[in-house]
Design a protein that fits this description.
Blueprint (H helix, E strand, L loop, with lengths): L6 H14 L7 E4 L3 H17 L4 E4 L2 H9 L3 E2 L2 H4 L4 E4 L3 E2 L5 E2 L6 H9 L4 E6 L12 E5 L4 H12 L8 E4 L1 E2 L2 E2 L7 E6 L6 H8 L5 E4 L1 E2 L5 E5 L4 E6 L4 E6 L6 H4 L3
Parallel strand pairs: 1-2, 1-4, 2-3, 4-7, 7-15
Antiparallel strand pairs: 5-6, 6-14, 8-12, 8-13, 9-12, 10-11, 15-16, 16-17
The structure holds ribulose-5-phosphate.
């Protein structure tokens, strides 16, 4: 079955598998959203089933909650956990400071709340997610449906004085209808091209009434685990200033690759 995985999926898988090694018995773990985070959830599910790992997971979306339950992870709410030992999540972009763009899957609000409530955040990603400057990937912002067009206009006006290349915002769609987040909100994707000052932009966007949260994660991520299609894995720790590399073998198990 692994032979059918594309190099990008193999890269996501090995990043997730390596990051799962950071999860220890008794931890409360934030579970990210997206295709890379789904590998992580599957890896943790296998560790629960095969090694008796005891963890409680706080999912960042309904789809992650469903998968976590399916693979046997005990799911609790953030309010039950209050604080987490570790959150592991994917990203759409990361730079050398481990600043992130997230929200490609529309779960940025819960992802940011959960990651911020964690002692540590680890991002898992394939190498294509690394960028010199954030902004090629459209920056998602979550906005409330009430007056969203007015909010969009305010956002575009605000971007005029920001250090960005593009200023166009588009409403994310789900087919013919607007995409709805788990919190019942909409997503505006900001086509910025290049973000000069991500910290400033993140603060300014959140001042606009109608904007609930933006997909810039600044000073939240501690480590990134980067996977490659040939099984290589690189782990960078921004606090320790360390970089380590190793290689993972693909081991097929029914659990991990079931239904993929
Ligand atoms: C979801 C996210 C995801 O982490 C991000 O979109 C990366 O997804 P994938 O692992 O599928 O590439 O932020 O809101």
């Amino acid at each position: 079955m692994t032979g059918e995985l594309s190099p990008i999926d193999k890269a996501k898988f090995v990043a997730a598998k390596r990051a799962a090694d950071f999860v220890e018995d008794g931890m409360r773990v934030g579970l990210g959203t997206g295709s890379t985070a789904a590998w992580l959830v599957r890896c943790l599910g296998e560790m629960v089933e095969q090694d008796g790992l005891k963890i409680r997971g706080v999912p960042t979306s309904t789809r992650t909650a469903e998968l976590a339950r399916e693979v046997g992870i005990e799911v609790i709410s953030l309010d039950e956990a209050r604080w987490l030992d570790l959150t592991i999540d994917g990203a759409d972009e990361f730079d050398a400071n481990l600043s992130l763009v997230k929200g490609g899957g529309g779960a940025l609000l819960q992802e940011k709340i959960v990651a911020t409530a964690s002692d540590q955040m680890i991002v898992i990603a394939d190498a294509a997610k690394e960028v010199e400057h954030l902004g090629s990937f459209p920056l998602p912002i979550e906005v409330i449906p009430f007056g969203w067009q007015t909010t969009q206009a305010l956002v575009e006006e605000t971007l005029v004085s920001m250090d960005v290349m593009g200023r166009q915002a588009s409403l994310r769609m789900n087919g013919e209808i607007p995409f709805i987040t788990d919190e019942g909100n909409h997503i505006l994707d900001l086509h910025l091209g290049r973000i000069g000052n991500a910290r400033q932009l993140a603060m300014v966007l959140n001042q606009i009434p109608g904007v609930v949260e933006n997909g810039l994660f600044i000073d939240i991520c501690d480590k990134v685990v980067i996977g490659y299609g040939d099984g290589r894995v690189e782990t960078r720790d921004i606090n320790e200033g360390t970089v380590s590399e190793d290689r993972l073998d693909f081991v097929e198990t029914d659990n991990l690759f079931r239904d993929i």
